[in-house]
Design a protein that fits this description.
Structural class: alpha/beta
Strand content: 15-25%
Distance between the termini: 26 Å
Largest sheet: 9 strands, parallel
Number of helices: 16
Number of domains: 2
CATH topology of the largest domain: TIM Barrel
Low-confidence stretches: none
CATH architecture of the largest domain: Alpha-Beta Barrel
Shape: globular
Bound molecules: guanine, zinc ion
């Protein structure tokens, strides 16, 4: 008999997209549910009593009233920026020059890269994050360090060498050829190894020459199962800068599109200041828009158009954008997404917020068949949330009249003490 674990608690799963079905109908909540895990996968979910009867030999873990849901998926982060998170007083371009580039220079040192990867994965696990799509730095060793540490933990992660050949300090620049060669070697070594996926990673078009973007477009065409991650239309000054650097381009997105860097599996961080043409092309090509709400307020970038972009059927993931984002926590990030949507005239339902942080991000990474939900066949990455984790949250939760009203203060107060347990790859990890 293979070893099985049975986790019992409240459970939350999704049977549809809560942006295109009534949120409470798209979600399936059990007040006493069970999740059966075997060999790293979920093999059954349903009412706790039925799960116990059907799996009498499973090792039992009873989490009481706590909520079991899919682990959170952070669809855009920069693990090398862990040490400079919450750095004061700058907008994007100055923030990169003042804080980010000096820190990223340190990642040529394998010991610093490994130490930071370990710290970052510890910090995010404590927040209930089980999958991350991260930028690394220009240095291949920064990618090695991240994949090695994630691999040791059995985590499903996406990452890539950040390519830059202009408008960055000399020590952080490669060339079109070196970006291509080093990315290609990392793909050969890591892509598809265990739960690791490679993302071809031009930082953003201001720091890549047309030649570099072309080389990376060619690399993606040679390795179409890789993802491609970059930044798009984050700040107005940046959009103007792109216009001056690429005078022939129709718009910012075109600086990627013309080099083959647009399509399903392309992940565009921020995507705030978009033209009508850009929105149409993003949708037609099934590219992913990654919403980074704490970053967008922290660096002063703008208000992501959640109502418009969801209504037109864009593929949207949710992300911290550490360390432009001011928190490692996806709970805190959901709260910021709620606040920004309010400023855009939309009240996101708690089911929509949790969906964005799980299935939405998984779909953005083209992994919604593997991770981001509680359902048979899914990989067993789970978070267990205490919905009364602090006195402030508990007193509010006591007044709640239904499950959603109980869950919402845990999201909005974004306190990581809510994270009671984390399961990664079918194993208890926190
Ligand atoms: N645009 C280009 N690089 C970065 C980065 O590191 N963080 C953010 N937020 N935006 C960027
Ligand atoms: Zn970013």
């Amino acid at each position: 008999m293979p070893e099985q674990d049975l986790l019992i608690g409240q459970t939350l799963a999704f049977t549809a997209d809560p942006f295109h079905a009534p949120p409470t109908e798209a979600a399936r909540h059990e007040s006493r549910g069970g999740v059966v895990i075997e060999a790293g996968r979920i093999i059954a979910t349903g009412p706790a009593d039925e799960m116990r009867a059907a799996h009498p030999d499973a090792r039992l873990m009873d989490y009481g009233d706590a909520l079991i849901c899919a682990g959170f998926i952070d669809a855009h982060a920069h693990y090398p920026q862990t040490g400079i998170i919450a750095s004061w007083g700058k907008r994007l371009i100055d923030w990169l020059e003042t804080y980010t580039f000096p820190e990223e220079m340190r990642f040529g040192d394998p010991a610093h890269a490994s130490d930071t990867a370990r710290l970052y994965l510890d910090l995010t696990r404590a927040c209930g994050t089980t999958t991350i799509a991260s930028f690394c730095t220009i240095h291949p060793v920064s990618v090695e360090a991240f994949f090695q540490e994630a691999g040791r933990r059995g985590q499903r992660v996406v990452a890539g060498k950040t390519c830059m050949d202009r408008n960055a300090p000399e020590r952080l620049r490669d060339t079109a050829k070196r970006a291509y060669d080093q990315s290609k070697a990392l793909i050969a070594r890591w892509h598809g190894k265990g739960r690791i996926s490679y993302a071809i990673t031009p930082r953003f078009s201001p720091t890549s020459s047309p030649e570099q973007l072309e080389a990376l477009g060619a690399l993606w065409a040679e390795h179409p199962s890789c993802l491609m991650q970059t930044h798009l239309a984050e700040q107005k000054e940046e959009v103007e800068w792109v216009k001056s650097l690429f005078p022939d381009a129709r718009d910012y997105l075109d600086t990627y599109e013309r080099f083959g860097l647009l399509g399903a599996g392309a992940l565009f961080g921020h995507a705030i200041h978009l033209t009508t043409r850009e929105r149409a092309r993003l949708r037609e090509t099934r590219a992913s828009l990654i919403h980074c709400p704490t970053s967008n307020t922290f660096i002063g970038s703008g208000l992501f158009d959640m109502p418009g972009l969801t209504a037109e059927g864009q593929r949207i993931g949710l992300a911290t954008d550490t360390g432009g984002g001011s928190s490692f926590s996806m709970l805190r990030t959901m709260a910021a997404a709620y606040e920004i949507a309010q400023l855009r005239g939309m009240a996101l339902h708690p089911a929509q917020l949790i969906w964005l942080a799980t299935q939405g991000s998984a779909r953005a990474l083209l992994m919604d068949g593997m991770i981001g939900n509680l359902a048979p066949g899914m990989e067993a990455d789970l978070v267990v949330l205490d919905l009364a984790s602090t006195p402030a949250i508990a007193q509010r939760a006591r007044r709640a009249e239904d499950f959603w009203e109980t869950l919402f203060p845990t999201i909005m107060m974004g306190d990581e003490r809510a994270v009671k347990a984390v399961w990664i790859n079918g194993k208890s990890a926190l």
